Amino acid sequence: MRKELKMKFKGIAPILLGSLMLTYVSCSTESSVEENLTSTEVISSTELKYSDETEMVSEELMAIAEDVYTADEIGSTSKMNYASGYMPDCVVVSVVLTQNTKEVVLDFGEGCELSTGNTVSGTVNLSYSLDLEAASNTIEMTLDGFTFNEVAIDGEAQILRVRSNENGNPQGTSNGFFEATWPSGETASFTGTRTREWIEGYGSGFWGDNVFLITGKRTYIGIAGNEFVKEVTTPLRRELSCRFIVSGVLEISRLGNSVSLDFGDGSCDAKGTLTYSDGAEEEVVLRRFRN
């Protein structure tokens, strides 16, 4: 027996999603891609910009999926209605219940502007078990005609949702593959894992006090065909009240060479530090997707 429900989220709240949007300090972010990197060069500033645009899209998709699931999880375990105020009111949600699963379609239509100024379109499809009181659950995510600021995103992910990890915190681990195609026709893709441990704000009823620690490792194929490995070596701290990652270290490697990016001491600012293998350091500016 299938039961169909339709609903619409109400109430717009600002979505201050931080990102791993990094670019070297320069007069222009539209410089040509350095396709012929030397054997010792790790990544060009332009390629770094493109790679972190895909990271931000992935992070936002995971945040949306977990917000929907969390509302169900808290409603099931505490027997109360719960909404964080995180979802914008421009998304239409369709729900199909089967005997064992819940299928959710988030329809952003032909253009749904988020409070960040980013515009999304198309649909995000979620599916997970109705046993929301289980210790863990798997959220299946697929996309249909999805775009993010006119960048077409294809792919899928599985999110292993754990109600309580070894630290007693909720946690989601995403294993997925996504490919981005820019309006210019340039493409990039990545595959790998990303874990978000929810260390503050779970169940408070307000998304703005949510804090996550992010870890993981991914392989990124850039628009020039170069392959990079991006690994979090010190957990990245994500506070939704700030649009930037406030601390943690990310290592980027290619052909055995690597650079590390330190996001800072916890301050909500746009500064980061790149450290090269020879110990040289360079200040970088963290950016949002559209800025």
Tell me about this structure.
The protein is mainly beta and 291 residues long. It has one domain. It is 12% helix and 48% strand. The protein is built from one helix and 16 strands. The chain has a 16-stranded antiparallel beta sheet that branches. The longest helix has 34 residues. The radius of gyration is 19 Å and the shape is globular. The relative contact order is 0.17.
What's a concise summary of this model?
This protein is mainly β and 291 residues long.
Attribute tags:
single chain, 291 residues, mainly beta, 16-stranded antiparallel β-sheet, globular, disordered N terminus
SS-based class: mainly beta
> How does the major sheet shape up?
16 strands, antiparallel
Count of distinct strands: 16
What is the approximate shape?
Answer: globular
Number of domains: 1
Mean pLDDT: 82
Layout of helices and strands:
Blueprint: E1 3-8, E2 22-24, H1 45-78, E3 92-97, E4 101-107, E5 112-113, E6 119-129, E7 136-148, E8 151-162, E9 171-181, E10 187-200, E11 211-221, E12 227-239, E13 245-254, E14 257-265, E15 271-275, E16 281-286
Antiparallel strand pairs: 1-3, 2-16, 3-4, 4-6, 5-6, 6-7, 7-8, 8-9, 9-10, 10-11, 11-12, 12-13, 13-14, 14-15, 15-16
